[in-house]
Amino acid sequence: MSQPIAEPPLKSLANFPIGVAVRAPQLAEPDAAALAARHFSQLTAEWEMKMEYVVQPDGSFRFDRADAIAAFARQHGQRLFGHTLLWYANEPEGFARLDESRQSFEGALRNYITAMVSRYRGLASGWDVVNEPVMENGEGLRESLWTRKLGQVGHFKVAFEAARAADPAAVLFINDYHLESRPAKLRRYMQLIEQLLAQGVPLGGIGCQTHCGADLAPGAITATLKALAGFGLPIHLSEMDVSVVDGGLLAGRAEALRRQAGLYAEAIDAFAALPDRQQFAFTVWGLRDKDSWLKRENAADAPMLFDDAGRPKPAFAAVVDALRR
Ligand code: 9MR
User: Fold this and answer.
1) How large a percentage of the chain has pLDDT more than 70?
2) pLDDT tier, 240 (very low <50, low <70, confident <90, very high otherwise)
């Protein structure tokens, strides 16, 4: 029997950081931990650095799982990416029911951001400061507890300024999704970035999540990254996955997996074509298919580079080829 050829570590092929989203319990699982350590040079916490986990109903914070991910990153010489300080989808009780006669809402938010960012200072290369601010149809910006209390402009200012003060070296990001499939959303996102920069908000990087379906038109990812790169800021392709069930593919599973591989390769090519100083990181949103949030929503999905057993898929081979170009 011939000896299986070990697949090359992705991070050894890339001139830019290759990231992956993980959950703390996975890193205690030998197979998942080995994959995360072998291929990736940056870790994003899939949810354990969000308010939904960190902020307790009484307003206290728990860092146990974020600390476990940080410890793994340190041990394996990886960068940590902070995700996410403010998100419309997270309105924890500790904030919603804050007694503002004791501490102002803004003060409490600053305190949270300061605690979070300073704890991982030196290890975290950057932070998603505000996540997903643009409405799905691109017609405006989302409302949330944060915008209601501090105003649209105000909530960006408070969050970015608190993060900047807590870690002057971290790159501070805004981050959003469906930018490649919804032109109005991309336009509104870019308008927002322009406004924030004009207002002097210390925004230092642009996130493009890149959750997409295998039916996404070839060229869309390339055009989107190019448009976003026009600001001259670092770009984080921050959460890539390619659903093979979303988008109602008519051509069958083999064709969907082929298109999936093509989209991953296109994304790598487009990212590698950015000026070096703008290549912040290329991050996939999960290790194996079975780890993906998409598979939890639809068991037939297979969005990642590795299958359920951790074996490389055609998408992995396509990424390797693209990195070697
Ligand atoms: O993949 C994440 C899932 O495990 C969490 O339950 C969920 C809520 O915290 O968030 C998912 O990640 C999202 C990310 O934080 C922001 N962009 C969209 C991602 C997929 O929903």
Assistant:
1) 97
2) very high
Q: Two tokens at 9?
A: 């570590």
Per-domain residue ranges of the chain: 10-324
Is 239 a catalytic site residue? yes
Q: Which of 23, 26, 44, 47 has most ligand 1 atoms within 8 Å of its beta carbon, as the pocket-test mutant?
A: 47
Closest CA to 218 of 278, 259, 177: 259
Residue 293 beta carbon below 6 angstroms from any ligand 1 atom? yes
Quick one: which H or E segment has residue 307?
none
Return the CATH architecture of domain 10-324: Alpha-Beta Barrel (3.20)
Q: For the residues 229-252, what does the mean pLDDT come to?
A: 88
**Which atom number of ligand 1 is nearest to the Cα of residue 23?**
4
Q: How far apart are CA 11 and CA 195, in angstroms?
A: 35
Specify whether 46 is catalytic: no
SS3 289: helix
SS3 (DSSP) at 132: coil
CB count, 10 Å around CB of 267? 26
**pLDDT at 220 > cutoff 80:** yes
